[in-house]
Amino acid sequence: MAKIASYLLLLCVLCITGTAPAASVDTSYVTTFCKSTTYPALCMRSLSGYARVIRRSPRQMSLVALSVSLSRTKSAYSFLTKLNRFKNLKPKEYRAIADCLELMDDSVDRLSKSVQEMKNLGRVKSRDFLFHMSNVQTWASAVLTNGNTCLDGFADKSMNGTVKDSVTAQVANVVQVTSNALGLVNQFANNNKH
């Protein structure tokens, strides 16, 4: 009886804290696909936690990768919004941050459309598959261009310092996870040409 009471008490604590022992999830599928990306270690770190959702579906893997990219881009946009409110920034920093904000806003829009397009792909007729995949590829590529353009705005040596380092870290992460997502999308598209 004491064992049962102890077990129930532990279960109640776990329910209240939201922590439960994690069941072992097979991540080998994620590992296999991540090996072909530009940043395989980052791919594994950002996607292996979603292995149960991804299952063994290349479309789900692409969708999750795009969703992670969208989340990181929203986070970068939020960071830049807060940074833009700081006093005592150099005029060049204000301009570069304002440009990056515009680019990240556009990227959030494009990634949102990409995620939606991937979600709808299951209902697409085979003759329309390439059109929809092309949309996703074009939008994800534009996000990469936006990220690199933002980083270029901080390339001037007079911009060296904490602001540049902080923006670079945020935006470089967006570029890297988006590069991985685009690689997975391309792989999925190439394997599913009708």
Throw out a few tags for this protein.
194 residues; Butyryl-CoA Dehydrogenase, subunit A, domain 3; disordered N terminus; mainly alpha; single chain; elongated; 75% helix
What's the arrangement of secondary structure elements?
Layout: H1 2-17, H2 28-34, H3 40-47, H4 51-54, H5 58-83, H6 91-120, H7 129-152, H8 162-191
Helix pairs in contact: 3-8, 5-6, 5-8, 6-7, 7-8
Give an overview of the whole structure.
It contains eight helices and no strands. α3 (40-47) packs across α8 (162-191), α5 (58-83) packs antiparallel against α6 and α5 packs antiparallel against α8 (162-191). It starts with a helix and ends with a helix. The longest helix is centred in the middle third of the chain and has 30 residues, at 91-120. Helix content is 75%, strand content 0%. It has 194 residues and is mainly α. The protein has a single domain, classed as Up-down Bundle (Butyryl-CoA Dehydrogenase, subunit A, domain 3), CATH 1.20.140. Keywords: Apoplast, Disulfide bond, Secreted, Signal. Its main location: secreted. Residues 1-22 form the signal peptide.
Quickly describe the structure:
With 194 residues, this protein is mostly helical.
